[in-house]
Amino acid sequence: MKKTVDEHAARFDEIAADYDDEKSPEYNECVALVLEHASPEPDDTVLDLGCGTGAIALGLAEKADRVVGRDISEGMMDEARRKADERGLDNVEFGQGRFREPNYDGDVDVVTSNFAMHHLSNEEKREAISVIAGLGPRKVVLGDVMFFGEPNPEEPFYSPEVDDPATVGELADAFTDEGYALTAVEMVHEQVGVLVAERL
Ligand SMILES: C[S@@+](CC[C@H](N)C(=O)[O-])C[C@H]1O[C@@H](n2cnc3c(N)ncnc32)[C@H](O)[C@@H]1O
Asked: Among 115, 124, 141, which is best to mutate for testing ligand 1, by the most ligand atoms less than 8 A from CB?
């Protein structure tokens, strides 16, 4: 991780109120694909890691039985809580939790994460994927900045000073090493994609 957890949390606290304002077409497509691939059953519990202002968690709350959002930034989660209230959603909760310590030990059927795991180093991503696998979900849907080709720091999808994206191959290895098979790989842009990992 190129910044500490506290530094990342402070950074997102600062931008939380404006975070939803302008989103790239690639981000929007990624959100849509994560929602589509997650497609929870009505009795499923979904855990959304790095939930931010709730793009994924709130989008899935109408389909799932329960959605649990975890993040390190209270500012981002306050926005998510406000939107949940506005929409009258009472089956979604948001609380402090990190990728490698999600602060959740209940049953989980589907884990999602969108545009968040790239803050971790590759070794930390592996640890996070191992922790996620240990929770026992049948499916993990990861939308994120990830390299399909050669990393290109000139491109706009990540900031080398704070972000640390992996290649698709590195992420695929981490999932398969934990007993998951990749059942879909969606390339949104050569640096943005969605991976669907399902328990073999
Ligand atoms: C770019 S935002 C994405 C938010 C949301 N998932 C979305 O799709 O809009 C990244 C989020 O990841 C969170 N984050 C960063 N590092 C984290 C970590 N180690 N554990 C959990 N969340 C983290 C940040 O606080 C921020 O809310």
From this structure: 115
